[in-house]
Amino acid sequence: MSRLVTRDFLSATFTGFKSLYDKSFAAAEPIYTKLATVVESTDEKESYNWLGAVPAMREWVDERMAGALRPHEYEILNRKYEATIEVDRETFEDDKLSQLRPRIEELALRAASFPDELCVKLLNSGFSSSCYDGQFFFDTDHKEGDSGTQSNKLTSAFGSSALEGAIETMMGFKDDQGKPLGLLPDTLLVGPDNYFNARAVLNSQSIVVAGSSDVEKPGGNTLQGVLNLLVSPHVDPGKWFVLASGYPVRPLLFQWRVRPEFTAVTDPSDEYVFSTDVFKYGVRARCGAGYGLWYMAVGSTGA
Predict the structure, then answer these.
(1) Contact call for residues 100 and 20 (beta carbons, < 8 A)
(2) pLDDT mean across residues, the chain
(3) 7-51+71-300: what fold?
(4) What is the pLDDT of residues 272-283, one digit of tens each?
């Protein structure tokens, strides 16, 4: 028996799908919040002219010495994104709603995790894209004030020695007054090609030289548990990144203008529905992503 596809039925169906979408969206575990400082945007674009080092504490012996923000001009534009699925009227008439539930759940998961792709692609392109100081985000000659020339760009393949070098590099960064920033990295981001190697480096109790039974570090693996491991399919082959994600301003900035909204075109009188006998369900969002503080990240091209 064919089900009557009425406005009331379509309205109730949308309510059910919206609830399922919201539940699946909330259950997702995206990684972009670990890579970026999340900002609520109120305009078509946001200006971040405050980026740069904050003054270190000093003894107050006369008057306060204000550290003026350096005149950096850096803007992030909000762009519009969508994802849409079509559903034939027959799906409702034949009472096959259960077949749509996985598609709605997948739509929610894709909506929740698409900022991951935007953020990881920024890291991938950071070797040839500029950040607030006018240098490439990953570069060999960052300099602010009295910091001296500093590099957060590596070219080594991933391995224990290279990882130790990246960690030590970040811990040695100085601010524009020439004072140590005191950063402690906490995250390693790799792609699928380095996943198992990274797990071995961070989780093994000891490290063994390839092709040998001799332990490289008899005292144990000093990298064990030092960093949290993140893996993303969007990381370019060979590349890997050490990040400091536990600070107020993270390596990247992600701004929401409109968070992903679940919407639908199901009115039988709608011209598209009338002409095609097809309903649409989709997600719409407005957001933007850009570079935060370069010294919160060390990246390697892997070659």
Answers:
(1) no
(2) 88
(3) phage-related protein like fold (3.90.1690)
(4) 888 888 999 999
